[in-house]
Write a structure and sequence with these properties.
The complex is a heterodimer. By secondary structure, chain A is of the alpha/beta class. Chain A is built from 15 helices and 9 strands. Chain A has 3 domains: 142 residues, Rossmann fold; 30 residues; 82 residues. The N and C termini of chain A lie far apart (58 Å). Chain B has 4 domains: 70 residues; 146 residues, no CATH class; 193 residues, Rossmann fold, CATH 3.40.50; 27 residues, no CATH class. Classes of the chains: A alpha/beta, B alpha/beta.
Chain lengths: 297, 478
């Protein structure tokens, strides 16, 4: 694999970071670095991390930044190649055969076969579509941990060689290498084969500064001091041992709620009352409420 | 190409060390890393680190190990503010230990301890990072008392430095200042937020000090030797019986995600892999819609019952941590079992299922097990024989053919009678009886350990020293 500079989408790591910030995705050094490398090494990125830390959002933002079309493959249990790669439009094929039969009787089997296993009868699914696209695309394979280990193998050819083999048509190679993002919620260990082909990026909860910036960028009209306070409270809550720590998207929801309620700053009562937006388990809410109102010594 | 051969040498040593530390780095990944570093200038240290991580580390639990090795191998190559790169590379160990380290540090040498403490306090109050870094260097020079060639670990120096800085006192003082600024008392929420903020800053200072110590040690001993002393087991390999407090906390954090993964896997296993004989009646019934052609064969799938689990755990001092983890783990995936009951014993036995029922907080429940369970009968030394006997008398009738009984302990019976016949009887009644032993296999049956005496009556005796082994065992249980 050789990285051709002619195709490079980004100039440098800081350029990626700035570009992402322009589309309101606040990347840290690590995120920007991996995106930059993904482009240079022409490798897919496997993004892992807790729910709601902006994994899917990253792919969307990169698509927006590079002006590419986003092709999304949502994974689920039971996903197979007819849903992920391609499928023959079998109804159309049947019609075609019938038409042929009525037309003239001397069409040989090979002719028909060649006829019906051709481009017009092919239904492209996300993976093949991304490979065949002539315009710039970003391919997002969402929640890849939901498919079975056996199905993962489907992805391997696409991910390492950017090609799809169709027995009847031959191998379809990518005209341009798309940027590929795979996301995983880590509900199971992905196979070594898949991991080896990808760059790995772990998205964690952002630190205080970044979280504040994210709130400021994503929630219009919020004041600087309120955003700062929200970020601080959330940091405090994340330090507790909870079943599910508040994610970035929940922080944003909370910020919006507080804004709607017309809060200028957060006091204890307000924080406790709106905790259910940040936390989704009753035991977590109780614990956090107790912790927030008990004086920290 | 910006890469030069010394760079590749360093990288090679680095990857070698990663492998020794237990990270699975494949050849492809190695090549990827080599290619990646050609695109990222080494001067951009953060980006360089992430580039290496993205190509070499494919699991978040390995991140910490990676970071440590990275610090060791590339710390010398980072110019600290006020120092040039060459100076660092040339300076040999002895010189580095004696000089105070930096331009900023030079000015600090003349400060009295009180002035230094004042400066530290101001830097923390204003979150002044540059000063904090300089202070960290100064503190190490002054307090750590590092001598070249001395075979002492970094923790020793860290302890000496921190003891002299009295960070708890500084935190107190910072909080007092906050209270003053707020004009009197803070509300409890404010109080908490302020504490968190200062603790965060102090943690940063601590990291800075650790990094400084590490840098000097690497300069003294070289990266290979340093990496060897810092080498720690990966989270899944930490031994339950010898885990430090930090490692315990880390293990507790890993349990939840691990349990979730395992639960998903068990549920899937139950749903798939079902093969059954042809269900003739069902097939015929469905054939009606195809005009009597049995086009859609139906099968009679077996519906495996969820197992019922009884955990009987020794919670005496030596194996308490292990029992705690196993209970946590079993309860974290309790949705995969039809019923979980827990018993703990030392020389008396007590059922503790009640602590786990009606609460979602497993940590809380385990804490109650430790404090409230009634497990002392005579002297509080393990007596497996008596504990099993009581278990047999009280609960044997509840052990049925669906129950899997898991016995946890090191079987160090203090030379009491073993009552191994109970285990034998249990096995007759239960579906399975397993024994999990947290001791290394080589210690079994030494001293007062009588694990084999029980083991012969069990369906399996497993060495279970770390999360990896525990996970493997629970998986085959489901």
């Amino acid at each position: 694999m050789t990285a051709t500079n002619a195709e490079a989408r980004f100039e440098s790591v800081p350029a990626v970071r700035q570009g992402l910030a322009d589309v309101k995705y606040l990347a840290d050094e690590g995120i920007a670095g991996v995106v930059y490398l993904a482009d240079r090494l022409q490798k897919p990125v496997l993004v892992e991390g807790p729910a709601g830390t902006g994994k899917t959002e990253l792919a969307k933002s990169v698509a927006q930044l590079t002006g590419s079309r986003l092709i999304r493959l949502q994974c689920y249990e039971g996903l197979d190649e007819s849903k992920a790669l391609y499928e023959w439009n079998y109804k159309k094929q049947l019609l075609r055969i019938q038409v042929e039969r009525n037309d003239e009787d001397n069409a040989t089997w090979t002719e028909i076969e060649e006829d019906i296993f051709a481009e017009p009868f092919l239904l492209t699914r996300p993976l093949l579509e991304a490979i065949r696209a002539t315009d710039p695309v970003v391919l997002l394979i969402d929640e890849v941990d939901r498919v079975e280990v056996e199905t993962e193998a489907l992805l391997l050819e696409v991910l390492s060689d950017y090609q799809v083999s169709i027995p009847e048509l031959g191998t379809v190679r990518a005209t341009q290498v798309p940027l590929v993002f795979l996301t995983s919620n880590n509900t199971r260990e992905l196979s070594e084969a898949l991991k080896r082909r990808c760059l790995y990026l772990h998205l964690d909860y952002p630190d205080l500064e970044r979280e504040k910036e994210i709130i400021l960028a994503r929630v219009p009209d919020i004041t600087d001091s309120l955003a700062d306070q929200i970020a601080r409270v959330v940091r405090s809550i994340r330090q507790l041992e909870l079943k599910k720590a508040p994610s970035v998207s929940e922080t944003l929801d909370w910020a919006r709620t507080l804004l709607l309620l017309g809060a200028k700053e957060i006091d204890e009562a307000q924080a406790t009352e709106t905790l259910h937006i940040l936390l989704k388990y009753q035991s977590d809410i109780e614990k956090a409420a107790k912790e927030l109102s008990a004086a920290a010594s | 190409m910006t890469t030069t051969s010394p760079m590749l040498d360093v990288l090679e040593g680095f990857i070698q060390e990663l492998r020794t530390a237990g990270l699975p780095v494949s050849l492809t990944e190695n090549l990827d890393a080599m290619e990646a570093v050609q695109h990222i200038p080494m001067e951009d240290r953060e980006a360089f680190k992430y580039a290496l991580a993205a190509t070499l580390v494919k699991s978040h639990s390995h991140w910490k190990a990676f970071e440590t090795v990275f610090e060791v191998y590339f710390s010398l190559r980072r110019p600290a503010p006020g120092e040039s790169l060459d100076e660092l590379d040339e300076g040999d160990g002895n010189v580095r230990f004696d000089e105070s380290g930096s331009a900023a540090g030079g000015a600090m040498d003349s400060l009295s301890p009180e002035e230094l403490a004042e400066m530290l306090y101001r830097a923390l109050l204003n979150a002044d990072e540059a000063t904090m870094q300089a202070l960290a260097r100064q503190a190490v020079t002054r307090f750590a008392g590092m001598e070249p060639g001395r075979p002492v670990g970094g923790t020793y120096y860290l302890y000496r430095t921190l003891r002299n800085l009295d960070l708890d006192g500084v935190l107190e003082r910072l909080m007092d200042t906050s209270r003053e600024q707020a004009g009197g008392e803070l509300t409890s929420l404010e109080e908490r937020l302020e504490t968190d903020e200062y603790q965060d800053r102090i943690a940063k200072l601590r990291q800075e000090i650790e990094a400084e110590i590490r840098r000097r040690l690497v300069a003294d001993r070289g990266p290979e030797a340093m990496a060897r002393t810092l080498r720690k087991p990966l989270p899944e390999d930490v031994d339950f019986m010898h885990a430090s407090r930090d490692e315990m906390a880390m293990l507790r954090r890993t349990i939840q995600p691990l349990a979730r993964k395992l639960a998903v896997r068990l549920a899937r296993k139950r749903r798939h892999g079902r093969k059954g004989p042809l269900d003739f009646r069902n097939t015929m019934r469905h054939s009606l819609s195809y005009g009597g052609v049995p086009a859609e064969p139906k099968f009679r799938y077996p519906r495996p019952a969820k197992p019922e689990i009884m955990v009987v755990a020794d919670i005496s001092g030596s194996v308490a941590a292990f029992a705690r983890f196993t209970l946590m783990f079993v309860y974290a995936i309790s949705s995969q079992f039809s019923k979980v009951r827990a018993f703990v014993f030392i020389d008396g036995i007590d059922e503790v299922t009640r602590f786990f029922e009606g609460t979602e907080d497993v940590n809380q429940a385990v804490h109650r097990v430790n404090t409230e369970a009634d497990v002392i009968w005579v002297d509080g030394h393990s007596d497996y024989g008596h504990a099993f006997q009581v278990f047999w008398e009280k609960f044997a009738s509840e052990v049925g053919p669906k129950t899997s009984v898991i016995l946890l302990g090191d079987a160090r019976n203090n030379y009491h009678s073993s009552q191994a016949w109970i285990v034998k009887e249990l096995r007759q009644r239960a579906r399975h009886v397993y024994w999990l032993n947290p001791e290394p296999r080589s210690y079994w049956d030494t001293g007062d350990s009588i694990v084999s005496e029980y083991g012969v009556h069990c369906d399996g005796v497993f060495e279970c020293r770390n999360l990896r082994q525990l996970e493997r065992f629970v998986e085959q249980l489901g």
